[in-house]
Design goal:
With 278 residues, the protein is an alpha/beta fold. The chain folds into 2 domains: 10-218, 2-enoyl-CoA Hydratase, Chain A, domain 1 (Alpha-Beta Complex), CATH 3.90.226; 222-269, Orthogonal Bundle (Lyase 2-enoyl-coa Hydratase, Chain  A, domain 2), CATH 1.10.12.10. Helices cover 49% and strands 15% of the residues. It is built from 11 helices and 10 strands. The strands form 2 sheets. Strands 1-2-3-5-7-10 form a 6-stranded mixed β-sheet, with helices on both faces. β1 and β2 form a beta hairpin.
Length: 278
């Protein structure tokens, strides 16, 4: 069992061996994010990344109304979007710093060494896309409604969707369609274009599937899992040749692990392998 995690607006539990479940917990506001939430999110995932008792993570939202409705626009308009300076350059620099900090907090999910499974349901707008695209696997309930909402509030999405979404799905036309129109689209369309890998009939079933998948991953060699995620993410943004070279260097060290011997022996002996903590 991992040490206790106590962070405002988040429930962190450990429902299966080596599996963490992070639940966004502001259901009375449809899990809309205020600044303290993304700071805590970053802290949670940085800690999970190095926790030897965790090998896979599920991310979901509390309540039935929303995974997250995105950024709490009212709180943002009263705080982070107002700058007490008349000089445009200084105001711009302050805003840029704030955006970079926000981006880094969401990127902490992507940088987590352990695979992260997003389970979306109901309203999943704006920041929901930024956040889920930083995850490794995306599942959703059939009632999920998605929207890249930012153009409707007068700005280009700036926390990750416009950079990650074109790499997550194959259709550039569809990406521009949903980003430029801010239209709401259903789970069936998200599945059609590969934004999610599976649609379940309810939130309960989707969370259970996420935990089941996380437990399956957690039963594998943690050395192999961490290496697989690292190489996939590295190779995604580079040429095949660069990815192959990186893989050769990575495995030159990691293939020497005892996990390889344990996995092969368990296959021969027809038993489930047990791996040491990483």
């Amino acid at each position: 069992m991992a040490d206790k995690y106590e962070y405002e607006y988040f429930n962190v539990t450990f429902p299966r061996e080596y599996v963490a479940h992070v639940e966004i917990n502001r259901p009375e506001k449809m899990n809309a994010f205020i600044e303290n939430m993304w700071l805590n999110l970053s802290a949670i995932f940085r800690r999970l990344s190095h926790d030897p008792n965790v090998r896979a993570v599920v991310l979901s939202g509390a309540g039935e109304r929303a995974f997250t409705a995105g950024l709490d626009v009212k709180a943002a308009s009263q705080g982070m979007l107002t700058r007490d300076t008349a000089d445009p350059a200084r105001a711009a620099n302050a805003i840029r710093r704030h955006i970079l900090e926000f981006q880094d907090c969401i990127t902490a999910v992507e940088k987590c060494e352990k695979p992260v499974i997003a389970v979306l349901h109901s309203i999943s707008y704006g920041l929901a896309l930024d956040l889920s695209l930083a995850c490794d696997i995306r599942l959703c309930a059939r009632n999920t409604s998605f929207s890249v909402k930012e153009v409707d509030i007068g700005l280009a999405a700036d926390i990750g969707t416009l950079s990650r979404l074109p790499r997550a799905v194959a259709s550039a036309s569809w990406v521009k369609d949903i980003c430029l129109t801010a239209r709401v689209f259903p789970a069936s369309e998200a599945l059609q274009f590969g934004l999610v890998s599976q649609v379940l009939d309810s939130k309960t079933l989707a969370v259970e599937k996420g935990l089941e998948t996380a437990a399956l991953i957690a039963g594998k060699s943690p050395v192999a899992v961490v290496g697989t995620k690292e190489i996939l993410n590295y190779s995604r943004d580079r040429t095949v040749e660069d990815g192959l070279k990186y893989t050769s260097v990575w495995n030159a060290a990691m293939i020497q692990t005892q996990d390889v011997k344990d996995a092969m022996l368990s296959g021969i002996e027809k038993r489930k392998p047990v791996f040491s903590k990483l």
